[in-house]
Design brief:
With 666 residues, the chain is of the alpha+beta class. The chain is built from 20 helices and ten strands.
């Protein structure tokens, strides 16, 4: 009965989305306030119905209801409770239900917290949001029903893919979807602005916090996925340029460009057309990622293998929304008035440079991801575009961008002074040159790539700190005054500093593990020892172990440094009987920001084991950096200026000019 209630709630959510997609939009066209207010009710109620539907599916997993086909295909009665719950979104149908639930949550957020929006704009935004919801609810109902029953329920389910039975996969998909789907709000704001033919600084201020929230979630989601692949797959890598990884990385790049472009639009009412275009592109890339993961065109540990019917349905959604959005943009862009002018050397100019490199980088990743698919579709030839291509194209684009990042915050709006900016950053530049010289001294002239990359990382971190220190006159005023000014800095300024500092920390981790990693592949018998980076690993033997729904062989390694026992590491090889599926469970030990990493291989007839040992310098800084970046985004969201809409003075000044019924929705 609960499953039927969930299915019924899903249909009711679709009906409400249909109402929300039409009535508020028509009300905005005709000036009917009553119709516009319909969205204020339908959005949260639709969200409640979809939450009920998701809860019903979760209940079916928790109680192992094998009369539901989705539960049969992705669960098992012996599976730990945590993974019964995460199994809800560890499959195509359940993850799509989570997708539309998050879509509805963002729509309800606009309904509740959009009281400062002009009512026609709010109505149009919620209508566009409902158009997307309708499309994906139809997709679920017609091709991916998670509540489909089995006529003869089996006694046991097929179990969830074992590599998905991990805490990282309990966190990664929801975070990623909050980022993916959150960009739909930016898209809805862009389409609503094009429909009305009006863009101003207030629009940028309204759209920026929603985009920033989506960016934070997407950053954390990508980071969690990277860390999961690092420790769960046993490959020892943190990024593989997998097409499905790229599918989430491209919207992140576009959203990063959108955030910086929206700042220019908010402050100077410039880059209006470009900002709207980026909002469309960011969500379009999210839709493209959804298609790549669910159409069956990609083979990946991250992808859902689905039938062609589903792929064609999502392709149709892509064509309608992306094609329709770009068509509307082409019709309306010429009507949008451009904003203020600015000199090339200015904060606006620095942000334009930022956008230029981010956009080219996004196009590069898009080309490398889609070219093999297009070539196979057109000619039947299969090629592989892997890390060498992306490293040679993406990396060089990032170096000049990262070198320019510290200049942006220290330049003035409209017209900046490059000499003054360099004076504020001289000590950061000097420190980075010292870092470069130190690497040359330690590793020789052949290490020039390592030296430059580490120098850029130091430049980024210290350059980020230089901006607030310069604003508070840290080196030219009493310490007490400096501390007071630092405390009173806007949180958005702190957010920028922290986020840029996090980029430097992440880059330092990337360089450290990429340039200085050591690897040893060997076969050890019990009692034998292998050495790497000054650490000795002694193989003590293997023992069997049994978990809740798996059996494993655990290898034991004693790690010594300078003859003293440092730790004991126990990687394992597991087998999940329900699917007869083997997995590798790597072991790692953290030392400072570095890690020792053991990936076990196949056992030998003599009782030994093939094994990979890694020493990964500074590898944890990769994920620490992304957390710092996300913290910077959260700090910016806490700024009062991002929690309000148009400036109060401007709203009061325009109040007398707004017809009755079209005032802000508060």
């Amino acid at each position: 009965m609960i499953v039927e209630i969930g299915h019924y709630a899903l249909i009711l959510g679709l009906v409400l989305a249909l109402v929300q997609s039409v009535m508020p939009f028509w009300g905005a066209r005709t000036g009917d306030v009553g119709l516009m207010r319909v969205a204020d009710v339908t959005a949260p109620v639709q969200c409640a119905f979809l939450a009920l539907s998701f809860a019903a599916l979760t209940y079916a997993y928790v109680v192992s209801d094998f009369s539901v086909l989705n539960v049969v295909a992705n669960s098992h009665s012996e599976k730990p409770m945590l993974f019964k719950v995460t199994g809800v979104w560890g499959n195509h149908e359940g993850s799509m239900l989570l997708w539309v639930l998050i879509l509805a949550v963002f729509g309800a957020g606009i309904a509740f917290f959009g009281g400062n929006l002009p009512r026609p704009l709010k109505a149009n935004v919620l209508s566009v949001q409902a158009w997307v919801t309708v499309a994906f609810l139809l997709f679920i109902v017609l091709t991916s029903n998670p509540f489909e029953r089995v006529l003869t329920p089996p006694a046991e389910g097929d179990d969830l893919n074992p590599i998905l039975q991990d805490i990282g996969l309990a966190i990664h998909p929801p975070l990623l979807y909050l980022g993916y789907v959150g960009l739909s709000i930016s898209f809805s704001f862009a389409i609503a602005a094009l429909i009305e033919g009006r863009l101003d600084a207030a629009w940028a201020r309204w759209v920026r916090p929603w985009t920033l929230a989506a960016w934070v979630f997407l950053t954390l989601g990508i980071s969690m996925g990277s860390y999961w692949a690092y420790y769960e797959l046993g490959w020892g890598g943190w990024w593989f340029w997998d097409p499905v990884e790229n599918a989430s990385f491209m919207p992140w790049l576009a959203a990063t460009a959108l955030l910086h472009s929206a700042i220019v639009m908010e402050k100077r009412e410039a880059l209006k057309v470009w900002t709207v275009l980026l909002a469309i592109i960011a969500f379009s890339l999210s839709l493209l990622g959804t298609f790549l993961v669910r159409s069956g065109v990609l083979t990946s540990v991250h992808a859902f293998a689905t039938d062609p019917e589903r792929g064609l349905f999502i392709l149709l959604i892509l064509m309608v929304f992306i094609g329709g959005a770009f068509a509307l943009f082409a019709l309306r862009a010429s009507e949008l008035r451009q904003g203020g002018m600015f000199a090339p050397v200015s904060r606006e100019g620095a942000l334009v440079v930022n956008n230029l490199f981010l956009s080219v980088a996004t196009a590069t990743v898009l080309l490398g991801t889609l070219y093999p698919l297009l070539l196979e579709a057109l000619t039947g030839d299969k090629i592989s575009v892997g890390p060498p291509f992306f490293n040679m194209t993406f990396g060089p684009l990032m170096i000049p961008l990262l070198l320019a990042v510290p200049f942006g915050p220290v330049l003035a709006w409209k017209r900046g002074n490059l000499v003054q900016a360099m004076e504020r950053l001289w000590w950061a530049g000097a420190a980075s040159l010292v870092a470069v010289a130190s690497i040359f001294a330690l590793f020789g002239i052949d290490a020039w790539i390592k030296a430059i990359a580490i120098g850029v990382a130091v430049w980024l971190m210290l350059g980020a700190i230089a901006e607030p220190l310069g604003r508070v006159k840290a080196f030219s005023s009493p310490l007490k005054d400096t501390a007071r000014r630092l405390i009173n800095l806007p949180r958005s300024a702190w957010g920028t500093t922290v986020a840029h500092f996090g980029v430097g920390v992440m880059l330092l981790g990337i360089v450290g593990v990429s340039a200085f990693e050591e690897e040893v592949i060997t076969t050890l018998n019990p009692g034998e020892t292998a050495s790497i980076a000054g650490y000795e690993f002694t193989f003590e033997g293997m023992r069997p172990n049994t978990g809740e729904n798996y059996s494993e062989v655990v290898a034991r390694y004693t790690v010594r440094e300078d003859g003293l026992v440092l730790t004991v590491m126990e990687p394992s090889r597991r087998v999940y009987p329900a699917r007869n599926f083997p997995t590798t469970e790597a072991a790692f030990h953290t030392i400072g920001f570095s890690q020792l990493y053991i990936s076990p291989g196949d056992p030998t007839d003599s009782g030994g084991m093939v094994v990979r040992f890694y020493h990964k310098p500074l590898v944890t800084l990769i994920w620490i950096g992304t957390i710092i970046m996300s913290a910077g985004g959260v700090l910016s969201l806490m700024d009062r200026r991002l929690r309000v809409g148009a400036p109060m003075r401007a709203r009061k000044a325009k109040a007398t000019a707004i017809p009755k019924g079209l005032e802000p929705a508060e």
